[in-house]
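Bug report (template v2)

What were you trying to do?
Predict the complex of my protein with flavin-adenine dinucleotide.

What happened?
Run completed; filing so the output is reviewed.

Input:
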Amino acid sequence: MSDSRRTRTVVWLRRDLILADNAALDAAKRRGDVCLAFNLDPVLLASNRIGAPIVQAFFSALKALRADLRCRGSDLALLRGDFSSQLLALARRLGAQAVYYNEDYDPAAIARDRRTSADLTAGGLEVQSFSDHVYFGADRLRNDQGQPYRVFTPYSRKWRALHATAPSAPIASEDRLGERLLPRGAIGETSAVPRPEDFGFGSSERYPACSEQIALAGLERFLQPDGAGERYAELRDLPAVDGTSRLSAQLRAGTIGIRTCIGRAFDAAQRPKGAQIGAWINELIWRDFYQMILRSFPHVDGAPFLDAARHIAWDDDEEALRAWCEGETGYPIVDAAMRQLNQSGWMHNRLRMISASFLTKHLLIDWRKGENHFERHLADADLAQNNGGWQWSASTGTDAVPYFRIFNPVLQSKNVDPDGVFLRAWLPALARVSSKYIHAPWNMSTAVQSESGCRIGVDYPAPIVEHSFARARALAAFGAVLADRSVRPDR
Ligand SMILES: Cc1cc2nc3c(=O)[nH]c(=O)nc-3n(C[C@H](O)[C@H](O)[C@H](O)COP(=O)(O)OP(=O)(O)OC[C@H]3O[C@@H](n4cnc5c(N)ncnc54)[C@H](O)[C@@H]3O)c2cc1C
């Protein structure tokens, strides 16, 4: 346990609710005694960029972390309100000389951290930040001109080359941590972990719960011999199958370290049946890539990466937006996806691509409206990945899908859920519709509709837009501003 003659550091947690593989915690522990703190931000909790699933994910992670710290005789200092004054008061009360934290690339977080660091420094504290939530920090990988990459493939090549020569091992922040944690008595009384309802959010058993323990067990299960990881490349596009890791909310709350994930994945990929795990590692590189894009091009928060895309003539159809949000477009694959999102706080990656393409291309609705709906409904909502995914789908981003590649929702549906298993699970109105019609139920005759218990326009909506009309309209709208422009290859 702690020694009153040693220096004391407050570790200000934000998206790193974990004791193992935590850079700021490790540095603080080497320096002396440590108190972990998290500040509940009433402004963020009241904003329209946050929703119940991520609040529940974070609160569950805080609860688990506090329980873990209490088992070790310490506590989590849970603060509420203005960052600078809360952290200063805590540091003074504890006699701490320093505040350490891990970097966050969200532009609002960067501004907050600058402000808070200046206040803490002015208050006489030493402040240090660390790269932690990405495997390679945004400045580590540059192209031959010394600029940030704009295209994924050359970025990933460089990433893999750097990994081969200088891998980042998981950080041993938990080793002998018990000797460094300030005892609960020294930390004193702090706030209880609130319930989502205390801030006006709903809660659901279907939203993911986060903790270090759940996250590690999930990683082990995914990467174990004969686990889903070994068939990732085959299964990752099938929403009816549990073929992905489901670790996104954990990575978002930081209940698992990225170095732990990458390290275990490379080890597992060496096994005789481990080849497909390489495809999973690629997705983790996409995560680093989008984090780097947000850090290097912060204008993507709120504006298209491609300047020309500012001039796309979006349609302001509020009723179409409502139908999309609520899963009532009449296209089963889009509707099932949106209901999975709204009810469970998670959506399968392939379906995120299909539903985002549908909103921006078929309905010609501004990607920012879809991005915001996702922010408020995903437990893993993360500005970098969400923005990257939306701008990719809307063809407005770096390395985005070309604007003329417009997903056909019926063909996509047949490819990814041929027997309609996923569709029937989320759309009870289609429960008795045969696999022949389930992807485009409007093709059923009136007699078949009656037999299937699914009358189009009564039990299940008619399509809100016709595919070939929508495709032509999108080609014209996007072509008018993007036809001559493409991202310069960046090798
Ligand atoms: C429109 C759109 C919005 C998205 N919004 C988010 C978001 O807010 N938060 C988020 O974490 N992911 C987002 N993604 C990426 C991806 O859909 C999710 O990470 C994935 O579905 C999470 O499930 P999983 O953990 O089982 O993923 P797995 O397939 O097991 O992948 C492992 C991890 O890699 C990362 N990852 C996977 N796919 C991608 C990707 N395409 N881009 C960047 N990182 C990826 C995630 O951290 C994920 O947890 C979005 C994708 C699209 C197309």
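What did the reviewer find?
Confidence is low (pLDDT under 50) at residues 487-491. The pocket of flavin-adenine dinucleotide is lined by residues 236, 244-248, 251-252, 283-284, 286-287, 290, 349, 352-353, 356, 374, 378, 380-382, 385-386, 388-390, 393 (CB under 6 Å).
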